[in-house]
Amino acid sequence: MSAICGEAGRYVHWGATTQDIMDTAVVPQVRAALAIVERDIQTVRGLLAGLAERYRDTPMAGRTHLQHALPITFGYKCAVWLSMFDRHAERLVELRPRVEIGQFAGAAGTLASLGDKGLEVQEALMSELGLGVPQATWHVARDGLPETLNFLGLVTGSLGKIALDIMMMTSELGEVYEPFVKGRGASSTMPQKRNPISCELMYAAAKGVRQHAGLMLDALLAQGEATAQLDLAELQRLTDPANYLGLAPQMVDIALARPGSVKR
Predict the structure, then answer these.
(1) Are 143 and 154 in contact (CB under 8 A)?
(2) Which residue segments constitute the domains of the chain, with CATH numbers given?
(3) What is the DSSP string of 195-256?
(4) Active-site option among 2, 83, 113, 187
(5) DSSP three-state, residue 171
């Protein structure tokens, strides 16, 4: 970068520490990912709202402790699922302003090398990048990324709950089941079976994200005014859940977007 900038190259790193650059590079990626998550949450809400309305009067067995209990309707069950994603949508609106902030504070977080121009330069940089201005440096106040990942843990946990419910309803009366998709789900030895592969993938992904979310809390234990020992761990714990969530729209579409599979 310095070589490309010629004479101005000596100022490329002026006022910034590597932590500033690494963190500020991650945040736009998180912002883009959360925009996709927001879109997908709205998609899931639309699917569930439609199912809740369509099947509001379709009776089915309610289950408690994995046993048949009192009757409910499938529409009611979908409305309960929907309520989780309504709350996730609210959480995301509250989360984004706290997380989508840049980092530019210098070696010890005081902007010392820029003198009395530090805050002015910081604000101009964040404006150029379309990021929020930090209230204070978050070199070692790293609650934003753990909050993001724990939010994703909540979302995938709700997806896992839906998957588990669908798998439970597949047996016995076949109340709800995944539609047939050529090339997947058929048993290699039992032709009468149609395995709920999409639900199984959603359930497994929910468990994986939950594990990463708990480990991400280690980022809060940062010493002093600067540390880099958590950088690689943070990136890995963000990347793997992002890969899991990348499957969500397809899996939800297969598992939920086929209302005709509901038996009346």
Answers:
(1) no
(2) 2-257 (1.20.200.10)
(3) --HHHHHHHHHHHHHHHHHHHHGGGG---TT---TTHHHHHHHHHHHHHHHTTHHHHHHHHH
(4) 187
(5) coil
Residue 65 falls in the annotated catalytic set: yes
Q: What whole-number distance in Å separates Cα of residue 226 and Cα of residue 108?
A: 7
**pLDDT for 30 beyond 50:** yes
Check if 187 is active-site. yes
Alpha helices in the chain (DSSP H): 18-54, 74-99, 118-129, 144-170, 197-216, 231-245, 248-256
Q: What is the pLDDT of residues 53-97, one digit of tens each?
A: 999 999 998 999 988 899 999 999 999 999 999 999 999 999 999
Q: For helices 18-54 and 231-245, what crossing angle results, to 10°?
A: 20
- Choose the catalytic residue: 65, 127, 198, 261: 65
Q: What is the pLDDT of residues 208-240, one digit of tens each?
A: 888 888 888 887 777 777 666 556 667 677 776
257 C-beta neighbours (distance < 10 Å), count: 16
The per-residue pLDDT for 203 is 85
